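dude i think i finally got it to work??
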Amino acid sequence: MALSRTRAARPVPRPARPAADRTRTLQAAKAAQTRARLIDATVRCLVKYGYAQTTTPKVAEEAGLSRGAMVHHFENGSALIKAAITELHEKRLRAFRRAADRPEHEVTDLVETYWRQLQKPAFIAFHELAVAARTDADLASILSPLQDEFREKFNAQAEALFPEWLGSPNFALAMTLSQTILEGMAISLQTGGMDQAQVDPMLRHLEAQIRALAPAAQN
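look at this
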């Protein structure tokens, strides 16, 4: 076929965005970065000081911001804790998605990936909040609905990521077993109730239990 002699059309330049739009975009990005700094600082304070000793002045100092700047983004400590819990849940969901979003689901990979996630400060901070909520009604009122929301998202994500388990009566049991055992191990390790030498045998035992529950094609 002969080459066309038609000239290629020149791309039409996009109209420049108004300066006001660019300013709003930059302001929104800066605000998001500041909120993220404050949430990260909250998590670090929970790990360092515990829930009872985590105060808004300490969070502001940890973030390198004034208390006034913090209040501009979070009107009070409750709003900040709620944002921190939401972010901690999102981190757990992202870690679960990374571990499971593969063509083949090898039990050892899934268990070890989630176990590594539980060694990070995010889980320590969440555990601190969960324990404190037992006797703190205000914290419980924040945590409880977010826990319900997390379970719904986690279950929906699990069903989407593990189609080979669909229809299996053991699926919910396997997921609950994994989460309960691994998180319980992480807490025991933190508090001295479990020796590091016990970790690997426990992980291998858990993997065997999950395989025993898997659909016949997966065993």
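DSSP finds nine helices and no strands in the chain.
im so relieved honestly
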